[in-house]
Task: inverse folding
C-alpha cells in the first residue's frame, strides 16, 4: 500500500470505524469477536484498496464472517447477562442502554441470515438491492428474510414487554 493510499485508508477508518463496529456488534453478540471481525474485514479491505464503495465491502465482509461463525456454532461462545451488564456500565443514559440491550438480546435470537437482513435493511437503512448484494442473494430472499425476521422481532419484543410488565 502506497503512502497516499494508506492515508486514505486511515481517513476511511477514522470516519467510519465506529459505525462499522456498531454494525459488527449487532451481528455478532460477543464484543471481542465483533471487534475481531471488523479488524479482519478491514485487513481484507487493505488488499483491495482503493475500492469504489469501501463501506459496502467491509459490511459484506463482516456479514460473511458472521455467517461463517454460525457454521461453527459448537465453537461459538454465547454471551451471558454478565456480558450485557458490562456493556451497560459503559454507557451514560440508562433508557438508551436498556433499549440497546433489549434490541441486542432480540437480535441475538434471530437466525443469522434474518439478523443480518434486519440489521442491513432496518438499522443500516440499505436498499433491497444493496442488501441482496451484500448477502449474495436475490431481492426476494431479502424480502422474505426481512419479513420473517421482523415478525420474530415483534413477537420477541411483545414477550419482553409483557415480562417487564409482569415484573412491575
Result:
Amino acid at each position: 500500500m502506497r503512502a497516499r493510499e494508506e492515508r486514505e485508508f486511515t481517513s476511511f477508518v477514522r470516519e467510519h470505524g465506529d459505525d462499522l463496529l456498531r454494525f459488527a456488534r449487532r451481528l455478532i453478540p460477543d464484543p471481542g469477536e465483533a471487534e475481531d471481525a471488523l479488524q479482519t474485514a478491514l485487513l481484507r479491505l487493505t488488499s483491495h484498496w482503493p475500492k469504489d464503495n469501501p463501506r459496502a465491502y467491509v459490511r459484506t465482509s463482516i456479514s460473511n464472517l458472521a455467517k461463517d461463525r454460525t457454521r461453527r456454532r459448537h465453537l461459538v461462545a454465547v454471551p451471558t447477562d454478565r456480558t450485557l451488564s458490562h456493556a451497560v456500565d459503559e454507557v451514560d443514559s440508562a433508557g438508551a442502554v436498556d433499549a440497546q440491550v433489549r434490541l441486542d438480546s432480540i437480535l441475538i435470537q434471530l437466525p443469522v441470515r434474518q439478523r443480518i437482513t434486519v440489521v442491513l435493511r432496518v438499522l443500516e437503512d440499505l436498499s433491497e438491492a444493496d442488501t441482496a448484494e451484500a448477502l449474495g442473494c436475490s431481492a426476494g430472499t431479502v424480502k422474505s428474510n426481512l419479513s420473517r425476521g421482523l415478525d420474530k422481532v415483534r413477537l420477541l419484543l411483545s414477550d419482553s414487554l409483557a415480562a417487564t410488565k409482569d415484573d412491575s
